[in-house]
Write a structure and sequence with these properties.
The chain has 262 residues and is of the alpha/beta class. The protein is 52% helix and 14% strand. A 7-stranded parallel beta sheet has the order 3-2-1-4-5-6-7, sandwiched between helices. Strand 1, helix 1 and strand 2 form a beta-alpha-beta unit. Helix 1 crosses helix 8, helix 3 runs parallel beside helix 4 and helix 9 packs across helix 10. The termini are far apart. Belongs to the short-chain dehydrogenases/reductases (SDR) family. Pfam families: adh_short (PF00106).
Length: 262
């Protein structure tokens, strides 16, 4: 009943974690609102969600790297829905390269989507939530935002930025009854890696430890409209990141071979 009738807006919702969050939110009685670039894929996802849950899932095309488009889409959603209760900033992508191989245009796109787009989407709903005195902003970050490893310098930089933004936002938003949560999963079985690691080497190396998107989605939805500070998965990786903060030199020395699995 905690989520029944709540409007849950999800970016990057045409597949992967975003689509699974939409399914799980609908199963809990919420109304998932799907945002992503591909309208055709959104239409298909919306139809699947309604067929499986009986909940209608509105959708709208959105490129989170287009700030003007964000403002227009969010304003229209508020007008159509009356309220946005939860925003899940899930849109993002990564590319794994050694520093000497970084493509600077690619770097700019990564920051535009993973960081600037996330901040712009947050800002677009923030005043609305402040006026209502309630709401929940959930930012999908990564364990890479806590421990940077070789070949992930730019991607980790974007996720470190998301973690820092989220921590600051949490302190500000709490004054107005708005919850803020960072979600830090390890590797997840999605098409993320078709872009991040075209060689497939990383997936082969870590496949036995990869999380299912459905499991991540359940944890995210369970946290909705609760004062959950962070969701960290898997537990052993969370323990590793805590140890890293206490003894970074030791962890880098002991886990060096594992860090080069990309």
């Amino acid at each position: 009943m905690r989520l029944k009738g709540r409007h849950v807006v999800i970016t990057g919702a045409s597949g992967g974690i975003g689509e699974q969050i939409a399914y799980e939110a609908a199963r809990q009685g919420a109304v998932p609102v799907l945002l992503a670039r591909s309208e055709e894929r959104l239409k298909e996802a919306s139809a699947r969600i309604e067929a499986q849950t009986g909940i209608r899932a509105p959708y709208a095309s959105l490129d989170v790297s287009d700030r003007g488009m964000i403002e227009a889409v969010v304003s229209q959603l508020i007008a159509d829905l009356g309220a946005i209760d939860v925003l899940v900033n899930n849109a993002g992508f990564g590319v794994f390269r050694y520093v000497e191989d970084i493509d600077l245009d690619e770097m700019e796109r990564m920051f535009a989507v993973n960081v600037f787009g996330l901040i712009a989407c947050t800002k677009a709903v923030y005043s609305h939530m402040k006026e209502r005195g309630s709401g929940h902003i959930i930012n999908i970050a990564s364990q890479a935002g806590k421990i940077a490893t070789p070949k992930s310098s730019v991607y980790s930089a974007t996720k470190h930025a998301v973690v820092g933004f989220t921590d600051s936002l949490r302190l500000e938003a709490g004054r107005f009854g708005i919850f803020v949560t960072a979600v830090n999963p390890g590797p997840v079985e999605t098409n993320f890696f078709s872009t991040a690691d075209e060689s497939g080497e990383y997936v082969r190396n870590v496949s036995r430890w990869m999380l299912r998107p459905e499991a991540v989605a359940k944890r995210v939805v369970a946290a909705m409209m609760t004062p959950t500070r962070e969701v960290n998965m898997p537990r052993w990786m969370d323990l590793g990141s805590r140890l890293y903060r206490l003894a970074p030199g030791l962890v880098e020395k002991v886990a060096k071979r594992a860090f080069f699995q990309k």
